[in-house]
Amino acid sequence: MESVEQVLRDDMQLVSRARGRDVEAFQTLVLRYQDRVFNTAYRFTGDRGLAEDITQEAFFKAYKGLKKFKGKSSFSTWLYRITVNACTSEWRKSAARKRGNEIPFPGSGGGEPGRPFDPPAEESDPADAAERKEKSALVQEAIASLEDDFRIVVILRDIEGFSYEEIADILDRPVGTVRSRLHRARGDLKEKLKALF
What we know:
The protein is mostly helical. The chain has helices spanning about 5-20, 25-45, 50-65, 75-95, 125-145, 150-160, 165-170, 175-195. Helix 3 crosses helix 4 (about 75-95) and helix 7 packs across helix 8. The radius of gyration is 18 Å and the shape is globular. The N and C termini lie far apart (about 40 Å).
């Protein structure tokens, strides 16, 4: 397994090659980050198709903007900033279109295939698996009901596992703001889920 420092060095080499129109180098970056970018977009929007569009848009914008990337942050931080901005923009457009209608939450699409990032079942009891899936859908619904600023910090910290400093870089906010938003978001989630569990 590569160390964080090695990944950062590799990313910068790939970015440098991609700037020189090396398509394979950029494809390597896409393969390295596409699942996490998609998962973030899906958790944020709750819509598989929209998450796929956002993922594609994020990589397109990253490719077009490589010359502007100064390397002050890591490539992944810069890419996540693009992703978060695209998520927020698409969510607002989607919410405006659906005003007055129910917004779909992750796991609520009838007949939609299972998400690729569901944890594997630890036991074979179908009742336990169904209960776990139902609880997961309720948690995701509660996360989706948070305001944008709070939803994204929960996704980046508690689901994607970014540090406070990385989230601050991605969102271009002070670490203290990230911590306070996360504290408030977790409090809101606790209240929303208290009655359910």
